[in-house]
Amino acid sequence: MRVYLDNNATTMLDPEAYEAMKPFLTEKYGNPNSLHQFGSETHPALRGALDELYTAINAKDSDDIIITSCATESNNWVIKSTYFDKIATGEKSRIITTAVEHPAIAATCQFLKNFGVKLTILDVNEEGLITPEQLREAMGDDVALVSVMLANNETGMIFPIKELAKIAHEWGAPFHTDAVQALGKIPVNVQDLDVDFLSFSAHKFHGPKGIGGLYIKDSQKLSPLLHGGEHMGGRRSGTLDVAGIVGMARALTMSNKFLDFENSHVRRLRDKLENALLEIDDVSVVGSKDRRVPNTILASIKGVEGEAMLWDLNRAGIAASTGSACASEALESNPIMEAIGADKDLAHTALRLSLSRFNTEEEIDYAIGEIKKAVKRLRAISSTFAH
Prior knowledge:
CATH topology of the largest domain: Aspartate Aminotransferase, domain 2
Number of strands: 14
Oligomer: single chain
Structural class: alpha/beta
Mean pLDDT: 93
CATH superfamily of the largest domain: Type I PLP-dependent aspartate aminotransferase-like (Major domain)
Shape: globular
CATH class of the largest domain: Alpha Beta
C-alpha cells in the first residue's frame, strides 16, 4: 500500500481543478494580454477565477489579489518592498517576526540585515506560539512591518492573528501573514483577521504547483518585486498562467466546501493516528489538538532518528517528513523543536505527519501498524535509547 502523509509539503491536484485547467493547456492557450481572439477568449475564465479567489477569502472590491508564482515570492515581495518603501527611505527601521517562520520569511529577513534592517524575532512558548502580550511589548514607532504566520508548517499550531494585527495597527504598522498552511484547512476571512497582506500557494490546498497569490488590503502601496511589464495593473510583471489561476481558484473553492469535512473526518483520522502514536512509550506531540489545523502532527519519538524513521516508512510505501536533514557531515536537528525548547537529542527525532481529505481509514490503520514496527526495529538498534 502507498500512503501519502506529507500534505503540508504539497498535495495532489483536485480532480475538479484539473478538469477546469485542461482547456487552457491545449485549446485556449493565448496570452491574456494579447489583443487578438486567442488572448481575449481567456478573459471570462480569468475574471471568474479572480472572483472565486476574492469570495474564498472574503476580500473586498477595493482590495487587490495579485497572482504570483508561489507564497515564497509573495513573502519576499512584502518583506523586500517594506525595505524599499519604508526602511531604505529612513521612515522606519525594524521588522518584527517570530522564531518559527517559514524560511521564505526568515531567510529574507536575515538577508535584509545586510542592508541595515533591524530585526526583532519573538521566541515561542512550548506549544510553538507567541502571545499578543509579547508583540505588544516589542512594538514601537520604528516598526515597518509585523510578519507572523497564520498556521505553522510543522506543528500546525494556529497563531492569534486577529489579536496580533490589532496590536500592530495600534502602532500604525502594517501586518503580514503567511497563510500557506491555513487555507483549505480552516476558515480564512481577511476582513475578520484585518491583515494588510496575506500570502498563499495553490499546491498546499490541492491546486497546481507554480502558482500562488498575495492579498493586499485596500490596494495599498507595495513597490513591485518584478519589473518588465504592466501585468496585474503594473503590480507584478509576467505573463499570466491562465490554467494555473483557474486551477488555483477552483481548488480553493473546493477546499472551502470541504472545510466541515476537514474538521470532522480529517481531524478524526488525525486524532486516531496521534492517539496510536501516544500509546507508544516516550512519544510526545507538539501542541494541543484544538489549537492546531485539523490535519497535522509533529511527533517526537525518543531514541529514533527522524531520518531513520523516514527510511523505514518509505520502504513501507508511506510518505512523511521530518525537520532533520542529512548534511555533509552532521545530522541537522529540527529547528522548530529547538525553538520550543526541546533538548538536543529530541530535536533529532521529529516526525511530521500531515493528512488530507483524500486519506482513508484503511491508510491510517496501515500507517499505524508500520510506524509501530519501525519504532520497535529502530529502538532495538539504537545506541541512545535505554532498552
